[in-house]
Design a protein that fits this description.
Blueprint lengths: L3 E2 L7 E8 L8 E7 L4 E9 L4 H18 L7 H22 L7 E2 L1 E6 L4 E6 L3 E6 L2 E5 L5 H7 L5 H6 L19 E5 L6 E5 L1 H4 L4 H8 L6 H18 L7 E8 L11 H34 L1 H27 L4 H15 L1
Antiparallel strand pairs: 1-2, 2-12, 3-4, 4-5, 4-6, 6-7, 7-10, 8-9, 8-11, 11-12
Helix pairs in contact: 1-2, 9-10
Length: about 350
């Protein structure tokens, strides 16, 4: 599918998406978007199943998710609305498999972002991902529901090892597998210029994450060309490495204002500020203590301190005179010795 602008009436949003078949015989990915009563909604899903099954599953998923949000009770929280919409999509896929035996066992991942003036609500099931970028940095990313990422969570392997693993496509959650699906939801604040990237594993599994971040945060080009260049680069990598690569689908939404929900201070920054506060407090207490001690010393030893200063002053004067006298005799050792002895007798 060619580059698609996500047309919207929302002044908060600029968005583009693209989906390609990759090296497969069929594109089983789907995406869609809508202006809903709650806000702007975009979803990207990756289907699973033989023949047309995968495409059917992902198409059902995006359709039912959008319908679920459009028909939701607006008094509910966005998080609950997305959970219910995704569970609705899950049951619709299961029911289709029941109605059509040839489609039994089909399933789909899903990623969803709902953007309102207050915040962006992110929901996902499976190993398709949502990223949030600010400037050139990743500030948020969903965590794959997959076998290898469970090992990452346990610190058995790294994320890069997970990406390159032969089991990287084994997922632990998906729509259409069982009636009770666990949906992971997060509410995110955003700032003007933030970018939300939704993508299937055909995108994030094809390149190192740092390379994907570099491509997605390119600010030298408009957003449309950025989306197209990511799809083109990854598609080219697949073709030059033998073909047969996965379908690849992505959508990037850029926000045009700040959310009313503000970023919470993360734990690391809190710890740093606490340490700085402790250091400053200790420093202030130490300075107060030393000031008091010096004041007490000056009060109780003022005479001794004055005498010491006078002796130092006299010693300095005598030393200066000694140096001058030595300089006058031009290094004559006998005269130097005589001057030093004379100086000692004066000090005694």
């Amino acid at each position: 599918m060619d580059l698609t602008q996500l047309k919207t009436e929302s002044p908060l949003i600029l968005g583009f998406a693209e989906s390609r078949i990759g090296g497969r015989s069929e594109n089983q990915d789907s995406f869609d978007w809508a202006d809903t009563p709650l806000g702007f909604l975009v979803t990207v899903c990756d289907g699973m199943g033989g023949g047309p099954g995968g495409k059917t599953a992902s198409s059902i998923a995006v359709k039912e998710i959008i319908a679920g949000v459009m028909e939701a009770d607006q008094q509910e929280s966005p998080s609950n609305i997305l959970i219910k919409a995704i569970r609705r999509a899950n049951m619709a896929i299961i029911n289709r498999g029941t109605e059509q035996p040839a489609l039994q066992g089909i399933g789909s991942t899903c990623t969803v972002v709902l953007i309102t003036p207050k915040s962006a609500t992110v929901a996902h099931v499976g190993d398709s991902r949502v990223y949030q970028f600010r400037g050139n940095e990743k500030i948020f990313r969903t965590f794959d529901h997959s076998m290898v990422f469970e090992l990452v969570k346990q610190k058995v392997i790294t994320e890069e090892q997970a990406r390159l693993s032969a089991q990287s496509n084994v997922i632990t959650r998906a729509l259409g597998i069982k009636p009770d699906v666990e949906v992971e939801v997060t509410e995110r604040p955003f700032e003007t210029g933030d970018r939300f990237l939704l993508c299937t594993d055909g995108i994030h599994g094809a390149v190192e994450e740092k390379h994907l971040i570099k491509l997605a945060t390119n600010r030298k080009s408009n957003l449309g060309p950025v989306v197209d260049s990511i799809a083109t680069d990854i598609d080219n990598i697949g073709h030059t490495t033998g073909g047969g690569h996965d379908n690849l689908t992505l959508a990037i939404v850029e926000t045009k204002s700040n959310s009313t929900l503000k970023e919470k201070m993360n734990r690391k920054i809190k710890q740093i500020l606490l340490i700085i506060g402790i250091i400053c407090s200790v420093s202030i207490i130490a300075n107060i203590y030393l000031t008091v001690k010096v004041a007490k010393f000056n009060n109780s030893n003022e005479g001794k301190l004055h005498t010491m200063c006078e002796r130092l002053k006299n010693d300095s004067i005598q030393t200066a005179k000694l140096i001058q006298n030595i300089e006058k005799v031009n290094g004559d050792s006998a005269k130097v010795s005589k001057i030093i002895n004379s100086q000692k007798r004066q000090q005694q």
